[in-house]
Design brief:
6 strands, 4 helices, single chain, Yope Regulator, Chain: A, alpha+beta, 6-stranded antiparallel beta sheet, 176 residues
Length: 176
């Protein structure tokens, strides 16, 4: 019979002033001319927010870090200002499932509880050093993805379009 080994991870919270990943993201925003706000709610609930204009809208972008000693994570996301109406949530779920398929990094998610819809990227940072390229890639990927799929989402949510048709039309526009 195999031996079961349990490992207990001890959580050591860092102070707000000693959050290197959080500070690295803030420094990246500053170095690249992004205006941002710090939301200091305490511990891992601190986050940064900014806005960026793209082809299909102006998107809010959020960044948060998890800076446990054993587990350092970075999260970037953008969410739509509106909530998906309950009667369109199944259709939107199909559309975002089609959109997520094949994505190696990043994903859409929707709350069936209230209809909140967002696009996320997260990754671990093993040694605590976050490269500028990682931040740039995450920021650009989140903003590109929310902007790219927005027209199809609006067709499904407010135009009543079939999710497969809306997704196919979106992909065909990209290929044209």
């Amino acid at each position: 019979m195999p031996t079961v080994v349990c490992i207990e991870l001890i959580s050591v919270k860092k102070t707000d002033a000693d959050r290197p990943l959080f500070r690295q993201i803030a420094a990246w925003f500053e170095a690249n001319g992004w205006k941002y706000q710090e939301h200091l709610l305490g511990g891992d609930y601190n986050f940064l927010s900014t806005e960026a204009k793209r082809d299909n809208g102006t998107w809010k972008l959020f960044a948060r870090t998890g800076e446990e000693v054993e587990w350092r994570e970075v999260f970037f996301w953008s969410k739509l200002e509106m909530f998906v109406p309950e009667n369109r949530r199944n259709a939107v779920a199909e559309f975002i499932t089609r959109s997520n398929f094949g994505h190696r990094i990043g994903f859409f998610q929707m709350s069936f509880f209230d209809g909140e819809l967002s696009y996320h990227i997260s990754f671990t940072v093993a040694d605590g050093t976050l490269a500028d390229g990682q931040v740039a890639h995450a920021v650009n990927n989140v903003l590109f993805s929310i902007d790219r799929y927005y027209p199809g989402l609006m067709e499904v949510i407010y135009g009543g379009r079939d999710p497969q048709e809306a997704w196919t039309a979106l992909i065909n526009r990209d290929l044209a």
